[in-house]
Amino acid sequence: MPGQTRSRPSPTGLERFNAAPADDAERALLACCGSHRWARRLAAHRPYPDLAALLAAADEAAYDLTPADLSEALAREPLPHLPDDAYAAAHTALSAAHAAYESRFGHVFVICLDDTSPEETLDQVLAAIRSRLANDPEEERCLTAEELRCLAKGRLTRMARTGAPL
Q1: For residue 8, what pLDDT is reported?
Q2: Contact at 8 Å (CB) between 46 and 15?
Q3: Considering 71, 103, 119, which residue would you say is the last residue of a domain?
Q4: How far is CA 43 from CA 52, 57, 93, 102, 150, in A?
Q5: How far is CA 63 from CA 8, 83, 92, 130, 147, in A?
Q6: Has residue 159 been placed in a domain?
Q7: How far apart are the C-alpha atoms of 19 and 24, rounded to whole Å?
Q8: Average pLDDT over the chain, rounded to an integer
Q9: Half-sphere exposure of 46 (CA within 13 A, CB side)
Q10: By CB distance 3.0 to 4.6 Å, which of 86, 99, 114, 127 could disulfide with 154?
Q11: C-alpha span between 148 and 71 (Å, rounded)
Q12: Which CATH number is 95's domain given?
């Protein structure tokens, strides 16, 4: 219709990420994985044509993390969140399991729960911690790195799809 102007659609999260200043992009990436080297590498290789390209680059950068990079990322990683309605005994059991894990391996326990329903979260975390306590340190480091990669990919996907502020 004459006289009407078309408004441009809002940029997607990925478009905003691609256009963001490097410092803002790195800060957003550090919320996905706490390794500065990983974040700098992903920010430096922008723009990404689509989410699949970003996730592939994230995987490649994660596989290249040194033990020091992995330790840095793990130091910034929060503990898995328990549902608010979990019983006090569950919190106690989980706290004890986390303490045993950190004592044995020297870092926080990480697990990607993206495909886990909230009702299964507690059981999944407790079962995984108990199972993984039997691992030798090198085996656990490999599993931890894989869980960290899964967490980062889920966070990147949410950032790219939701347009979360950078």
Answers
A1: 63
A2: no
A3: 71
A4: 15, 10, 40, 31, 19
A5: 38, 31, 35, 26, 12
A6: no
A7: 10
A8: 89
A9: 19
A10: 114
A11: 11
A12: 1.10.3330.10
